[in-house]
Amino acid sequence: MYRVRPAGSSGVSYHLNLTVPSLSVPGYGTWPCPPSGTAGVTAQQTAPPGTYINIQATEEATFCDVFYIEDGYSQECEAIGNGTALDGTGRELASSVFPTTVQVEGALTQAYWSGAPAPSCSTSLLGTRCSYAVKTNCTTATTPPDYNVGIINSGDYVGTATYVSWISAAACIRFNIAGPWICTPGLSFINSMNVVMPPYACTYNP
Amino acid sequence: MLLLKLVLAVLATACILVVFTIVWVVSLNRGADGIDIDLVSAITLHSPLFWLLAITLLVAAGWLSRRWVFPA
User: What digits encode the pLDDT tens for the residues A11-37?
Assistant: First the structure.
């Protein structure tokens, strides 16, 4: 998506081309727009000065593996685009580079509470809920995990357990290949109580 | 057409209940990275407040369906 606000001459037109597999999206203010994408997809829009225009070109990408599980968990799709908008006289109105890589994965992490610190508990009509400050328990090769668990809400195990281990599952997303993962609150289940668990091969895609 | 409307109404109601349950669980566990599945069942299946709101949603959905699926 590329947004420009034309200033100056009226009747300014722009177009965006999308090329696969590199998915580059060059935008020019020239008109007419010769198709240059693999499938020749272009988009153009004309608007009077003072209005915002929103130009979008979409092309089916052969190598865009949104629904392809590449490494067991990750799905990824990459689109790299840049655009330049010129007015009718060739002046540059705006330019932009917007590489976007989206990766989605389901992440598993093992975490444990070893009896301290004491959890923060509250009792209401919904029963007793306790917040445990936990530590992740992943193998060296999978540390730090993509889904970093710091607090787990669970039942009240104070007095009945001195060690509780959970496996937590969450959906994670990130917008750059090397960026941090952003995860939803995960669903956890207890996989051990009072028996220390060995490190787990957590989901790890740095 | 009547069957299609009925199916749509049931599916929409189910979706609303699922979304409501997710919002309910997440809002009650703000700040937590993980939520114990036993706790999820405790604050949903065993919660009178949850069922009160869920039944209110079901009644509202039934009333809307009555007017849309089977209009007088």
Answer: 444 444 433 333 334 443 333 333 444
What ipTM does this complex have?
0.74
User: Under a CB-based contact definition with an 8 Å cutoff, are residues A41 and A16 in contact?
Assistant: no
User: Do residue B39 and residue A154 have CB atoms under 8 angstroms apart?
Assistant: yes
Provide the whole-model pTM.
0.60
Q: Do B39 and A129 touch (CB under 8 A)?
A: yes
SS3 content of chain B, % helix, strand, coil (to 5): 75, 5, 20
Nearest by CB to residue B32, choosing from A147, A152, A155, is A152
Are β-strands A127-133 and A151-154 bridged in parallel, bridged antiparallel, or unpaired?
antiparallel
Asked whether the beta carbons of residue B43 and residue A127 sit closer than 8 angstroms, the reply is: yes
Torsion of CA A16, A19, A22, A25, to 10 degrees: 0
A188 and B35 within 8 Å at the Cβ level: the answer is yes
Q: Dihedral of the CA atoms A61, A64, A66, A67 (nearest 10)?
A: 90
Q: Using CA coordinates, name the residue in chain A closest to B47.
A: A126
Residues B1-45: pLDDT tens digits? 788 888 888 899 999 999 999 898 888 888 888 899 888 888 888
